[in-house]
Design a protein that fits this description.
single chain, Rossmann fold, 2 domains, 6-stranded parallel beta sheet, 3-stranded parallel beta sheet, 11 strands, binds ligand LMY7XDAE, THF_DH/CycHdrlase_NAD-bd_dom, methionine biosynthesis, EC 1.5.1.5, histidine biosynthesis
Amino acid sequence: MTAQILDGKATAAAIKSELAVRVEALKARGVQPGLGTILVGDDVGSQKYVAGKHRDCAQVGIASIQRELPGTASQEDIEAVVRELNEDPACTGYIVQLPLPRGVDTNRVLELMDPAKDADGLHPTNLGRLVLNESAPLPCTPNGIIELLRRHGVEIDGADVAVVGRGITVGRSIGLLLTRRSENATVTLCHTGTREMAAHLRRADIVVAAAGSPHLVRPEHVRPGAAVLDVGVSRNAEGKIAGDVHPDVAEVAGWLSPNPGGVGPMTRAMLLANVVEAAERAAGTDRVG
Ligand SMILES: Nc1nc2c(c(=O)[nH]1)N[C@@H](CN(C=O)c1ccc(C(=O)N[C@@H](CCC(=O)O)C(=O)O)cc1)CN2
């Protein structure tokens, strides 16, 4: 078997075209959505991801607001920029690029954000709303994974899903989305303390690998025909990317998201979707395009 590719790049391009129409409709009503980013430090990966977010904004007509701080910035320096974007009317939504440098209290920074401007869906109020089944911006990578599966016709309803990794951008929140009535999956969250991880993976219809551990998921871990999403990214000394999924998994899986070109572009597309939805909500209608 050779897996069908879950093409995130092409899917994200289609989503961006749909969003561009909605942004036009907002602008026709005098509403200009604007995405802010706060980048602290000089991590090459983070710089690339933030640059990509602003390229996407230009493509769909969203204004860009960029704030950069050195890796030596203090907690107070970062919080001052958060307060500034909370108050800036041109910034209709924003993100704090993660991870923040060691020593910074990430939770305190996230909690200081205005939840109405939280374009990542990572503010505790918005995560709480998700738990309570209330309307909230959805975390971008989990939402991107679901959209990627849906648009490729992979059955989620009733599926057994194994997630590897308990980070805040993916592992912690994806179960909240996948177990909603609209998705109806059964989710097992595996992590470094999980015994028999191979057995959990082998049983799954869908595997989401988000551990940041190169080639952790190997062909013998995957049920033939399963869908495998490669989310983790590790970079070697030369900056070359390795995903969490071994390339030979393509011989066993029914669907496989490439890395790069899979979940990453979908994460960015869902960020834009959150910005557009927030602007539409603020304009007094759920969808104007
Ligand atoms: N505030 C946030 N921080 C982080 C998030 C997040 O959702 N919000 N997720 C990740 C990084 N991330 C988004 O910020 C992200 C990762 C990957 C990509 C992407 O498009 N990757 C490309 C490859 C790019 C390259 O060459 O390196 C791909 O997969 O094709 C975009 C965004 C952690 N931080």
